[in-house]
Design brief:
Elements: E1 18-22, E2 28-32
Antiparallel strand pairs: 1-2
Length: 50
C-alpha cells in the first residue's frame, strides 16, 4: 500500500456531542466535546459520579 492510499478523511470518529456526568446529589454536568488545535485536559472534583 502506498502512503497516499492510507490517508482517509473521516468527518467524525464517533457520534457523541459531549460528556454528561451525573453526581450523587443528582446535579448534571455537561461538557461539549471539541477538537482543539492543542492538547487540553479537564478535571472534575466530584465523588460518587455516574
Amino acid at each position: 500500500m502506498q502512503a497516499s492510499a492510507a490517508l482517509i478523511f473521516l468527518p467524525e470518529v464517533n457520534d457523541s456531542n459531549g460528556l454528561t456526568i451525573v453526581c450523587a446529589n443528582s446535579e448534571e454536568l455537561w461538557r461539549d466535546l471539541d477538537n482543539p488545535r492543542w492538547l487540553a485536559t479537564g478535571f472534575f472534583s466530584e465523588q460518587d459520579c455516574r
